[in-house]
Amino acid sequence: LEKWDDTLSMKPKVLKRRIRQGIPQEYRGDTWQRLSGSETLMFNQKSSYQTLLQQTSGVEKRIMHDVNRTFPKHQLFRHVQGVGQRSLFNVLRAYVLQFFNISPLNHLSHI
Prior knowledge:
By secondary structure, this protein is an all-alpha fold. 65% of the residues lie in helices and 0% in strands. It has helices at residues 4-10, 12-21, 25-36, 38-53, 60-69, 83-99.
């Protein structure tokens, strides 16, 4: 990963071959973020996400109600107001603020 930019620009066939051979588990997250461009997008949009988290959507209670019922047996989400629930709440609230002007929660079930 240290030579990512050089390999991508100068040896794309080598990179393609190595990916097809399989990406080791410890490198998969970083590799897919770089291949998809999400790493750059996340870096460029970080301030937007932080700004959204400081706003209110008017539907926080509904979001939290739904978050409390999401994956009740999953270890990450089972604790009310725990790290998992709080993280999911923040992502959903930012999503609502970014993409919906009216009550959106009927459309969040697919997330």
